[in-house]
């Protein structure tokens, strides 16, 4: 879940509530769904929240939400925008894998270090969330005064005076000086030689042409990897160009909106940008002519009944409208339903239910009176779970300590150390189900049988007193192409008797008692199994069905597990007892 | 009167007028002293013998004391060696070598040399005082006295005990005399009863048990430890949760651990590019894609993702493909079972009202640490009914958590892709009183329910069983309990709760 660092003083200033103490702020934030996680070295609050309200990824957005909560602001707010002075032209050469661009200009800013840090944090957090680590959307912010827009020819129709171009560039093509670098590099060199380039190289490496943005001077941005140093933003910057590229127009437009709202809260004036897609650009954008940022207000309809039903309380219309307005929405009531206006930074509203949630939050969910639902149903355990529980009770009665081990393991523990070959036709032979790209070598397969887990517990507890009579009922799995999931799952009973005089007979006596307890007929015809001593191993046949194996563990397996006493063991499919 | 053999022997060895110690009686009867003591106490309890106790202190030389007695005290040897040297002073090393002292003994010699005023020790040299009289050293004399007589004058003895040259034993000496009843009993005649160790089948069937005396055990002594069988504490907790939920009218669900992403994520309206759906968060399995997804349901779920649900519903601006939905993963939550049930594909079409639950394993690619495991148990529960509200949800959870001593729930508005409204549940720790997260809950979204064919409301919640266990038992490292690193002693010693 996203965590945003917020300077409490800055938050107090932006909300206009200098009087709020830290504790009071924390309580108010908790009510918004922002949980205080701790503080940074610089004394900033670390706030964790659900990844829905991405407009709260910066102190400006958190302050806006608090102002609504305090009732200082009401209803939808949309920043006014000036007419465009800049155009982003989208060239046909733009890589088809990253076809979309959007942007905005914000003028008249006076950012101090804190405000700049907040902007950078917002950019990073948007990358991490909506931007899917820049794959879906990446943001570049530039000092506008460092850009030289190509002026349109005199006979062009009236409109924006400056143009920049989003286009494709040959990886070994034009050079530029990226941020935090001292020399000109080609885009390909950025990927191999620059730390930021290395980090995001996977996003563009396989493209024929890399995405790039040019002004009249040349390449100044290499999205989604890095900006050029020429247009680097500092506290001296007054006017900013924000550009976003990505794989989805809606997503980058919304990310752009969130940034515009934050900069508007810092006193900036938003200015539109014209986005002109070439006729030969990727469909569906080809030939499109857009005005950005898109700050249009959407509407959705919510029934009064549904609000009352979801919250479980009766409300009058005026109260509901008031609660909508306190959530930063506008609503008009008509015929038992509300037409609700939703500001463009609300990327989370997909359905009228999301608006009901807003009403509930504004009302205060914790102020609702809990009630036990007047719904009668009959409770019941699943048959499989009853069987497992009954078998466990019998095992414990026979003196076994019940254990619980992981279902994920590795071939070494599960097969090699048990002398079992993967794919062989013995219990535990699998074939094992492998985990794709495991990132721990301890957990690479699902266990094919459960005895190796118990042997490992014995190995880890040789310093504890004996006898160690252990049992487990748990999942095992093997590749099974006849199963719709390709995984054959079975619940096995496994048991070991580790004691100086453990013998086949001890294990069989307990297995026989267990079978008798549930009225199952047991037979133990001889069998060979590499984990057991030859001549002291048998198949477990329950009601005529082959279900497992029983015997004395082979000395080679014992020594492998650092055990200095004999172990008798059995394992079988618990469903055989059904 | 019939008495056990040992008691008869002791009784006969005693007199009414002369006190006899246990040691003396033991010597006379040939019994072990502890047997005599045991018999004496039994006889005292019968009123036949009086026992008087005096405290006795004995001294004897320790191994070090014995050595110094034969070789001489180190400080005395040091004095003599130094006195034989030329001039006033002798270097410590030379003197020690001459005295045959080494290591620790040199330190001992020096400190006692100084304490007894045998001379000065300064700047690495010893300067013996010619007036000192080490030949008349009282501690050396006391060592002899202890060895021969077991006694010496008190202050010197204390000093030697402090130096570790003499050991002091304190013991209780018990002296025995016959009481008047004892004398009477002896005069009337005492017979020996046969004492047996074990009650045998023979004794029982022959009736001989009537004529024997059973040897007394030290019933207060510790017995060898017996571990016995026990249900794993996490299983105990799971059973308790199941019991509570069945009592609240919930029916149990079962289903596959390895399942298509469709059931795990897509039905839950988790966009396919959701960060939690990457390889880093879930375990993908190297098996062919699932081939049994219901086509009509797949279509409805795909439509919910792309277009949304309802007249004002929006879809995600994320790609959606059936190929991703068919990938097989280990389930990251048991909500996959809820989806299978709600869709009618697990136990047939369900009509409201319904309550279902499961307490089953889930798998998350998390970092293994004291509170996080790669696999853990999730408690999952849901209620299907007409017109369920946030209040019903809160009421249900209050009831559930109250069973585990957790009261005063707080509901933090929260975000899940699959529920709206959603709440994180917080409760007071029963021991510490801290506010802690105890679950995640909400009403399933229309985008989840409508494609499944459910037209009423469903509220659901989830909670890690391990979290509940740690709360109840106060464990701080879950790895001690769950998995092959478990400590058998911890499992053996954990109190059974009910």
What does this structure look like?
The complex is a heterodimer of chains A (578) and B (498). Chain A is an alpha+beta fold. Helix content of chain A is 27%, strand content 27%. Chain A has 15 helices and 26 strands. In chain A, strands 4, 5, 6, 7, 8, 9, 10, 11, 12, 13 and 14 form an 11-stranded mixed beta sheet that branches. In chain A, strands 18-21-22-26-25-24-23 form a 7-stranded mixed beta sheet. In chain A, strands 1-3-2 form a 3-stranded antiparallel beta sheet. The two termini of chain A are 44 Å apart. The mean pLDDT of chain A is 93. The two termini of chain B are 53 Å apart. Chain B contains 20 helices and 18 strands. With 498 residues, chain B is of the alpha+beta class. The mean pLDDT of chain B is 88. In chain B, a hairpin with a 4-residue loop joins strand 15 (410-414) and strand 16. Chain B has helices at 5-13, 22-29, 33-45, 63-71, 74-84, 92-99, 104-115, 138-149, 154-163, 180-188, 201-206, 233-247, 261-266, 295-307, 322-326, 335-342, 390-402, 446-452, 465-473, 488-493; strands at residues 2-4, 20-21, 49-61, 90-91, 119-122, 125-128, 166-178, 191-196, 212-214, 251-252, 258-260, 328-330, 354-363, 375-385, 410-414, 419-428, 435-444, 457-464. The interface between A and B is large, with 99 and 103 residues.
Topology:
The complex is a heterodimer of chains A (578) and B (498).
Chain A: E1 3-6, H1 8-15, H2 22-32, E2 35-39, E3 45-48, H3 59-70, E4 81-90, E5 100-107, H4 113-128, E6 137-143, E7 150-151, E8 162-169, H5 187-193, H6 195-200, E9 210-214, E10 219-222, E11 226-227, E12 240-246, H7 249-265, E13 269-277, E14 289-292, E15 298-303, H8 304-311, H9 317-326, E16 330-334, E17 337-342, H10 352-363, H11 383-397, E18 401-402, E19 408-409, H12 411-414, E20 445-446, H13 451-460, E21 468-479, E22 487-498, H14 504-517, E23 522-523, E24 532-542, E25 545-553, H15 555-560, E26 567-573
Parallel strand pairs in A: 4-8, 4-13, 18-21
Antiparallel strand pairs in A: 1-3, 2-3, 5-12, 5-13, 6-12, 7-8, 8-9, 9-10, 10-11, 13-14, 15-17, 16-17, 19-20, 21-22, 22-26, 23-24, 24-25, 25-26
Helix pairs in contact in A: 1-3, 4-7, 8-10, 9-10
Chain B: E1 2-4, H1 5-13, E2 20-21, H2 22-29, H3 33-45, E3 49-61, H4 63-71, H5 74-84, E4 90-91, H6 92-99, H7 104-115, E5 119-122, E6 125-128, H8 138-149, H9 154-163, E7 166-178, H10 180-188, E8 191-196, H11 201-206, E9 212-214, H12 233-247, E10 251-252, E11 258-260, H13 261-266, H14 295-307, H15 322-326, E12 328-330, H16 335-342, E13 354-363, E14 375-385, H17 390-402, E15 410-414, E16 419-428, E17 435-444, H18 446-452, E18 457-464, H19 465-473, H20 488-493
Parallel strand pairs in B: 1-8, 8-9, 10-13
Antiparallel strand pairs in B: 2-7, 3-7, 4-6, 5-6, 11-12, 13-14, 14-18, 15-16, 16-17, 17-18
